[in-house]
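Supplementary Methods, section 5.1.

A reviewer requested that the exact input to the structure prediction be made available. We therefore reproduce it here, unchanged from the version used in the analyses.
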Amino acid sequence: MTAAQARRSRKIARPRERSAPRSGPGAIRFGTSGWRGILGEEVSFPRLRVLVRAIAQWLREQDRVPRVLVGFDARFASRAMAQMAAGVLLDEGFQPSLTKDRTPTPAVTHALARGRYAAGLVLTASHNPPAYHGLKLFDASGAIVADRHSRRIEAIARARMNDDTPPRSTRTPRAISLAEPYLDALERLVDSDALRAHPATLVYDAMHGAAGGYLEVLMKRMEIPVEALRTTPDPTFGGAPPDPAAEHLALLVERTRAQRGLALSIAHDGDGDRIGVVDGRGQVLSETRVLALLVDQLASAGRISRGLAIGAATGSLVEKVARFHGLAVDRHPIGFKGLSQAMLDGSADAAGDESGGFAWAPMGPDKDGILAGALLVELVARTGEPIETHVARLEAQFGSSACGRIALPRTAALEHAIERWSASPPVRIGRSPVVGVDLRFGLRLELGDGGFVMIRVSGTEPSVRIYAEAGDPRRLDQRLRDAARRLTRSGC
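The structure derived from this sequence is encoded token-by-token as follows.
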């Protein structure tokens, strides 16, 4: 080991605890946000019945109240899967309430946070491609169930893999609608007077997902002009993933550039918990910039004060803004579980991550893209300034931040390469020296120019994710390419 490597090794932050071992072949396994896979392969009706029965047994072990909320998104077979899940719960002695129609996940988690249910099941694959499906499981607080509970449910499912018969109950579950209670709560939180005084046009893309009929309806209540795109449900999502990343927002960018006057454009993913934002010039904002705007907006008005929880791959701009406002900031592993727990234990009253997730305590502890969208429209309308003006102001004060991520197909060779890098980190990425290594949340390489590269195996897709931050978009693209090229070569 060279002297430089020895100095770096002293800066390596080691994991606080080991991750759970992988399940065997064919087992049902939860990722960072529930159970997910190709419909008809990993996710099927018989396997779903096994999982719901395992969840029912776990709930009995927890001695929870018998009421369970079941929701579903706009994907193929979602309604049928939700109805079947409710039937299994009836067989198991529970009292399921089933949403009447496709419902965004934030409406479900908001209902859970109001304290009426033992748990919530949402049949969704979130932002994944149309061929995927899955189930998100939330506890009574409205947060994704903790890892220890997921592991217990997996163990029960392994022991009951043959318990996949159709439900016997002929009873009909209680049908409910969550739209009005959710929208009413959201309307009470935003500054409706500001919205009505300085209306800004909202260009809204629901991406054919479950969030259609929520944000655009709320804005119309407040007399905000809305151009709505792809709000009708489509199980194919127009042939693309319902993911509000830049590469899927061409239509929204086009419609934004055609606007005149003050405009803001927002997209939501398939179940409405993630947000994508296009500014008035037609430029897609990074998730880091969006989160920094939200934190600055709420902290400036005293609407958050306890602290902020952020994901491990979130850019430094968010942390700088939060600390400027006197907020304690804590980073957590990828996935929203740790962020939600920080909100529940009182150390944070807002949270956000690198994937477009944002949560604010008054609406619940899980990510809520609809809430984030409403707050950003409020910001533009209240100030009468386009969103890019607010971004420029923040970056003039705290420094520019370009953040992004890419995905590589997951292979054994890449996994071995990550293991080798974790044991012996590279000295530099591109021209930037590696000055610190953090292994708590994957593999995060701190770079000498203040940026980073982070690498991890996805918990929801068969891919390896590479995240990075740099001072400008050109250096960001180069950094992502350099990291991908070196990692791939290491796996050869």
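The domain at 3-15+401-490 is CATH 3.30.310.50 (TATA-Binding Protein). These observations are discussed further in the main text.
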